[in-house]
Q: What sequence folds into this?
């Protein structure tokens, strides 16, 4: 019987710029993303999976927030799920046999805040 992932970290993207039409992180957001790439592994341990909401014309910020983690860990970023579907993704992670039993930590970056119950 597969077990659930030990830990799923869901976080909102880093800071956005003052211009609401700009889909990218602000310079402060880029700095925070770089710091998160150090903080998350040091605080929570090794990552097994990286997920970010799909890039859209409205926002690339979730992907940009986890991109430094890709560089640090070498893990690919799965950004195939649209931001509005990330709760579905969280649900899938909790029931996916490939993830269950082998994942210590999965990171999901989104444009929204949420609570995911295991």
A:
């Amino acid at each position: 019987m597969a077990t659930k992932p030990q830990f799923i970290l869901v976080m909102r993207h880093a800071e956005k710029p003052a211009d609401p039409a700009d889909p990218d992180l602000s310079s402060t957001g880029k700095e925070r993303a770089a710091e998160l790439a150090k903080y998350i592994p040091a605080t929570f341990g090794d990552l097994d999976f990286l997920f970010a909401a799909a890039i859209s014309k409205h926002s690339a910020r979730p992907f940009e927030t986890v991109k430094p983690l890709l560089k640090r860990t070498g893990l690919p970023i799965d950004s195939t799920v649209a931001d509005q579907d990330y709760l579905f993704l969280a649900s899938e992670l909790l029931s996916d046999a490939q993830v269950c039993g082998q994942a210590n930590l999965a990171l999901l970056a989104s444009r929204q805040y949420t609570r995911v119950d295991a």
